[in-house]
Design goal:
The chain is α+β, with helices and mostly antiparallel strands. The protein has a domain of about 50 residues. It contains three helices and three strands, in the order βααββα. A three-stranded antiparallel sheet has the order 1-3-2. A hairpin with a 2-residue loop joins strand 2 and strand 3.
Length: about 70
């Protein structure tokens, strides 16, 4: 039986599957693939798929702009 994805907090050097990354970001897996394809999210090619270092994902999250109060103009 396969272990449940994200059964534990991944260490910074852990390699995440696209599906795990999508679950963390609450995005569709195709959206994660697009981030990789567009060069916005670093990934390692393993065979025919990709793996994302947890540390790279954390860095990407930190670089994203945060939402602020809405300014109606």
């Amino acid at each position: 039986m396969c272990p449940t994805p994200l059964a534990r907090d991944p260490a910074p050097d852990d390699l995440l599957f696209i599906s795990e990354t999508a679950a963390i970001l609450r995005l569709h897996h195709q959206s994660v693939r697009k981030l990789i394809r567009d060069g916005q999210l670093s990934a390692i090619r393993v065979g025919r798929t990709y793996r994302i270092r947890r540390s790279d994902l954390d860095s990407w999250i930190q670089r994203q702009p945060t939402t602020h109060e809405r300014h109606d103009g």
